[in-house]
Amino acid sequence: MSAGKAPAAAPARLARKGSMRGRALGNRRGACPNGVAGEPEQIASLQRLLERKTTLVRMMVHDMKGPLSSIMANLDLLEKSRLRAQERECVETALMGCQDLFHMVQNLLEIGKMEQGQVELNLSIVDPEQLFREVVKKMARLSEQKGIRLRIECRSDVRSLPVDAHLLERIIHNLVLNALAYSKPEGEVVLSTLDGAGEGKIRLAVSDTGIGIPPEYQEAIFDLYAQGESWQGMKNRGIRAPGSVGLGLAFCRLATEQHGGKIWVQSTPGKGSTFFVELPTDLTPYGSGLM
Ligand SMILES: Nc1ncnc2c1ncn2[C@@H]1O[C@H](COP(=O)(O)OP(=O)(O)OP(=O)(O)O)[C@@H](O)[C@H]1O
Ligand SMILES: [Mg+2]
Fold it and tell me: In testing the pocket of ligand 1, which one of 249, 273, 274 has its CB within 8 Å of the most ligand atoms?
């Protein structure tokens, strides 16, 4: 799995750097004449440094949540007060910017926790249709602004799914955000539960009538570390939104896999994309009750 390749790739990169520096330092100081003896310590020291840096960045990102929430709450209040048209526009733009930032912070923090195996599923029985409605409600304003219709199409017999409601909501939220970001006005986004998943599984889908994804990128888009060539290639071909970070689908993949499920895309450039999320139905909830 591509998201899982990264931890293995990082030490390999460090090892290469370490051996070059090891030889240079060793030869200069004469401490390790063959340039090999110093390597493990150097690698370990670089790894410790990397871990400290990662922890620091995570703490800073985490601490952004508080001030960001209070800015958003105040902007929310301001928006509800009497404002002139131009003032309202400024407040709305500021609010949307904060929401994007908040979304990015959440993705970053959750990816970090999942990569470190620090996430325990908080399972409950969820009605997928109700969860879709919650997401659609939150995205109503954005979809209106973009002129894109959001629709729910659910099978009547799929009413209860044992999942972590918070994680599933964030998966669907990310998929719908993408569907809106990569569609043109007058498009349509459909959230659905589908047949065909087989015994013990349920399949959810988010489809759009947007720009689509070329086949050569349909796997790489889920990989947090597939930046490099794929990312540049997509940028060059104009199939990444300006300011896109590339965290959303990596989060979706990790959160789906955390449930023992899988996620993939079927897409035709110029016609649209459908993202499928397949989840097991036999997980045992600790809590109970419909969402
Ligand atoms: N529905 C879609 N239609 C077309 N392209 C898509 C769609 N969803 C994702 N993509 C492509 O996959 C890339 C990765 O998506 P992902 O959600 O991981 O990151 P992002 O949207 O660029 O940034 P963010 O971290 O804010 O979500 C996008 O940049 C885009 O090129
Ligand atoms: Mg996204």
Answer: 249
**Are 108 and 247 within 8 A, CB to CB?**
yes
- DSSP assignment of 50-79 equals HHHHHHHHHHHHHHHHHHHHHHHHHHHHHH
Give the structural domain span for 16: 2-115
Any idea what the CATH number is for the domain that residue 182 is in?
3.30.565.10
Against a cut of 0.85, is the pTM above it? Answer: no
Residue nearest to atom 10 of ligand 1 (CA): 178
Chain centre distance of CA 39: 36
Would 287 be classed as within a structural domain? Answer: no
Domains of the chain: total: 2
Q: For residues 52 and 143, state if they share a domain.
A: no
139 touches ligand 1 (CB under 6 Å):
no
In the reported structure, the alpha carbon of residue 111 is separated from the centroid of ligand 2 by a whole-number distance in angstroms of 14
Residue 223 CB–ligand 1 contact under 6 Å:
no
- Residues 213/269, Cβ–Cβ less than 8 Å: yes
Residue minimizing CA distance to atom 4 of ligand 1: 212
In a domain, 290, yes or no: no
Who has greater pLDDT, 277 or 55? 277
Q: Output the residue whose Cα is nearest ligand 1's atom 7.
A: 178
Residues 232 and 155 in one domain: yes
Contact 21, 13 (CB under 8 A): no
Per-residue pLDDT tens for 199-227?
889 999 999 999 999 998 899 899 887 65
Please work out whether the CB of residue 213 comes within 6 Å of at least one atom of ligand 1: yes
Using the 3D structure, point to which of 89, 115, 141 is the last residue of a domain. Answer: 115
Given a cut of 80, is residue 38 above it in pLDDT? no
Report the first-to-last Cα separation within the chain, whole angstroms: 31
Ligand nearest to the CA of 245: 1
Q: Answer whether residue 1 shows pLDDT above 50.
A: no
Report the separation in Å between the CA atom of 219 and the middle of ligand 2, taken as the mean of its atom positions. Answer: 15
